Amino acid sequence: MSPDTVLEEIGRARVVPVVVVDDAREGLEVAGALRDGGLPVAEVTFRTAGAGAAIDAIAREVPDVLVGAGTVVTPAQVDEAVEAGARFLVSPGLSVDVVRRAQERGVPVLPGVATPSDIIAALGLGLSTVKLFPANVVAAPPP
Questions:
Q1: Residue 107 in domain
Q2: How far apart are the first and last CA of the chain?
Q3: Which residue in 9, 26, 104, 131 is the catalytic one?
Q4: Range of the domain at 68
Q5: For position 129, which CATH number holds?
Q6: Average per-residue pLDDT in the chain?
Q7: 140 in a domain, yes or no?
Q8: Is the residue at 143 inside a domain?
Q9: Vertex 104 angle, CA 99 and 105, to 5°
Q10: Which residues partner with 89 through β-bridges?
Q11: CA-CA distance, 6 to 108, in Å (whole number)?
Q12: Which of 42, 43, 92, 113 is the most buried (most CB within 10 A)?
């Protein structure tokens, strides 16, 4: 799946659930529930030791769920996530090293941005899609 196709799929979903799981079993359970609930996309965060195994299991056993890796903060995590089967990456901030490694690997990356300067830097790196982060701090509350 091309990077543009992945971003189109994310756009169609309109929501990307952030999933924190400890192992492959939990990842499969959550992925199955999301798929069965009509939301076949998941961002598995790299905040647990079992994230890579969960991404690998979802990519192999629930291929109709678009699985990505979140909280990616190093080029080594980019490699680990891609090798596990992540089809997109999300980072809490704009790291040039993470973006460049993701681009080398051919995987879309959505860095977290909070300022116009972040957005300009992302555009300068060739990105067209970013994640407002942390939204609860920089976005206006709903009416």
A1: yes
A2: 38
A3: 131
A4: 3-135
A5: 3.20.20.70
A6: 94
A7: no
A8: no
A9: 100
A10: 69, 109
A11: 7
A12: 42
Band (117; pLDDT cuts 50, 70, 90): very high
Residue 80 annotated to the active site: no
> What distance in Å separates the CA atoms of residue 41 and residue 63, rounded to the nearest whole number?
10
Split into its structural domains, the chain has a count of 1
Cβ(50)–Cβ(69) below 8 Å: no
Report whether pLDDT(142) > 80: no
* In the block, residue with structure tokens 């756009």: 11
Catalytic residue check, 131? yes
| Catalytic residue (one of 43, 80, 83, 104) | 43
Classify strands 66-70 and 109-113 as parallel, antiparallel or unpaired: unpaired
Query: Does 142 fall in a domain?
Result: no
Specify the amino acid at residue 135.
Answer: A
The one-letter code for the residue type at 31 is A
Tokens 């799929």: give the residue. Answer: 9
Q: Among residues 52, 48, 45, 46, which one has the least CA distance to residue 85?
A: 52
Q: What are phi and psi of 37, to 5 degrees?
A: -85, 0
| Residues 83 and 112: beta-carbon distance below 8 Å | no
